[in-house]
Amino acid sequence: MTQHPHILIIYTGGTIGMVKDYNSNVLKTFNFDNIYQKIPELNLLQCSISSVSFDKPIDSSNMKPYYWNQIAQIIEDYYNEVDGYVILHGSDTMSYTASAISFMLKNLGKPVIFTGSQLPIGDLRTDAKENLITAIEIAAFQENDEPMIQEVCIYFEYKLYRANRTTKLSAEQFEAYDSPNYPIIAESGVSLKFNKNTLKRDKNELAFSLQRILPHKILLIKLHPGLTKDCLSHMLKIPELEGVVLEAYGSGNAPTDEWFLNNMKSIVNKGIPVIDITQCVGGSVIMGKYETSAELVNIGLINGYDITTESAITKLMYLLSSNIPKEEIKYHFEKPIRGEMTVGR
Predict the structure, then answer these.
(1) Of residues 127 and 247, which shows the higher confidence score?
(2) Domain co-membership, 187 together with 230
(3) What is the model's pTM?
(4) Domain count, the chain
């Protein structure tokens, strides 16, 4: 590892990479080749910085697996040349992308830090500069000649989170993200304070590798009072449906109506995995705790424990892209593979 870590910025799009042209009052893409001139504070960091950008930066609302693969490919292409990555991404779908990337990168031994901002980098009250500077500092932070962070994280508003544990909670506040079921990994104040008990380390000696995620027909269903038999049946008749993520009530509870249970049983019997997660911001699924989830256990729904919606969808896509036999999806989903959930909480 180099004496001064080399950090690669990957700009995909989003507010953090925009600056205002004060002559036209129009936002335009920031030129990261001039990053030291625009943000001279970076000269104080003990690292070198280079950057690559998408040919056409995208709004994160247009994010999809095609771009996840593009990000992951850049990481793989530079893996032997750099010591860490900072990925700039729009905040709306950052938790989806960062979760997906966490599953795609196997045996990761370097930091991959996602960040973004609520205001453009050139605005007077922007949060972009602090998020960018500290994300780079975290990516470059080493202890005993090893990177402190060796996983995929999100840094936003003074806090570092495990990426696949996050969800976006606010469209207006600078503190836009939370990790309701896992402690923060680090906090930025006068100094950087790392919670070392939360850090992930791959213990094996296997080489880093990349697995692509392919698009799959996954249906997200959020239960609500008044959901009708016709509506549910119609959704589940999507041709070539490959998976369902069911946002259930509380600790994984669902209606006990015969029509609902029959629909779930029919889907599972077709070999289509159905993941039972909670629609609550915090907490965990405990299947069988109440009568309203006991039958779901018998039907064969997959226990999502305390996984987030963003992580459940991307993990299911990852497993469906892994050539795992469908009958083994349940076994693999119910095991944490990147620290994305706590089993038996």
Answers:
(1) 247
(2) no
(3) 0.94
(4) 2
